[in-house]
Amino acid sequence: MLELHQVSVNYGESPILRDIHLQVPSGQVVCLMGRNGVGKTTLMKSIMGLLKLRSGDIHFEGERVTHWRTSQRARAGFGYVPQGRGIFPYLTVYENLLMGFEAAENMGREEREAALEEVYSLFPVLKEMRHRVAGTLSGGQQQQLAFARVLIRRPKLLLLDEPTEGIQPSIMLEIEELILALRERGEMSILLVEQFLDFALNVGSYFYVMETGAIVLEGDAGNFDRAAAREYLAV
């Protein structure tokens, strides 16, 4: 599904990512972990085309997309839930959800209505609050809205940047259950950036750990070195 080959990224003259090799197989949940400031969000922005690569290549469904614009990637099936949620605080919940259709040019009216009802079934609180201004929602509700706004157009690849940051345990559990349900369906590939190792281990099928802009540890659920991962994630 998604493959990164020797991806390097600079901010100005400062190298941030160095020779990243990473794969997200079709229908799998791949977790990218590391402490704050090691380059995880930079990598996600690079995958979305928000940052330019210094070197390396990105392939999606076998096609080289390294130089595609962000809008092209979105139309091709990339979905991104950024760190900090990125909702539109002065629009209603319903209006935020409609914004999710912007990159779904091929969805007809009936398909859009069905997709809207589907996300309401996943997040019933959003249906109850559909006329509320999004900025008045709690942090957990805003996170659910950020999820729903991306899921509404049924992406092929879902990029989640620390979805558990700053939310209460009950919402964390709901997010965990949602990711597991999406993984069970097998219709979507997920790259999850996460700092909580236990959360990642509960939902992931393959794991990468970053340190100072490079991948330093990786493995699948059966052979991943959890003790070493805890050392890299320790503050």
From TrEMBL:
GO terms for molecular function: ATP binding; ATP hydrolysis activity; branched-chain amino acid transmembrane transporter activity. The keyword Glycosyltransferase does not apply. InterPro entries: AAA+_ATPase, ABC_transporter-like_ATP-bd, ABC_transptr_urea_ATP-bd_UrtE, BCAA_Transport_ATP-bd_LivF, P-loop_NTPase. Residues 2-235 form the ABC transporter domain. The keyword S-adenosyl-L-methionine does not apply. GO terms for biological process: L-amino acid transport. SUPFAM superfamilies: P-loop containing nucleoside triphosphate hydrolases. Pfam families: ABC_tran. PROSITE patterns: ABC_TRANSPORTER_2. Keywords: Amino-acid transport, ATP-binding, Nucleotide-binding, Transport. PANTHER family: HIGH-AFFINITY BRANCHED-CHAIN AMINO ACID TRANSPORT ATP-BINDING PROTEIN, HIGH-AFFINITY BRANCHED-CHAIN AMINO ACID TRANSPORT ATP-BINDING PROTEIN LIVF. Belongs to the ABC transporter superfamily. This is Urea ABC transporter ATP-binding subunit UrtE. It comes from Litorilinea aerophila. The gene is urtE.
